[in-house]
Amino acid sequence: MNINFPTSFAIGISVAFVAAAALLPAQAHADESGTFTGASDHVTTGGVSIVKTPAGGTLLVLDADFSLDGAPDPRVILGRDGAPVDAADLGALTNLNGLQAYVVPATLDLSTLDEVYIWCEEFSVPLGFADLN
Known about the structure:
Elements: H1 7-10, H2 15-22, H3 24-27, E1 29-35, E2 37-38, E3 44-45, E4 47-52, E5 58-62, E6 67-68, E7 74-80, E8 83-92, E9 100-103, E10 115-120, E11 125-131
Antiparallel strand pairs: 1-4, 2-11, 3-6, 4-5, 5-9, 7-8, 7-10, 10-11
Pfam families: DM13 (PF10517)
Protein name: Electron transfer DM13
InterPro entries: DM13_domain
């Protein structure tokens, strides 16, 4: 299994947490999940899940079927009420396709965030979004 982590993931994350994330499919369960819909004339498809790892952390996981047709400076941002929340920016999208995981900081209150955006920073538009259930 290959999980692509953003550069910021490696900073300050313990080896135990990384090892737990590698075991994700077998030992973690999705708390919430959704399916992407494209936006702003972009094609964004695939699933997304919020999962708790065995080590107690939280990850946002773009499923193996995730795909974005391309755009400048795409980012992964949690949101609510039809808009991304700046404080919930999880970082740059690491790949246009496939399985990837992003650390959700413990300081974020996930009970107030129910959407995931793939966001174009350069043009300030959504490239895709998913409602979390």
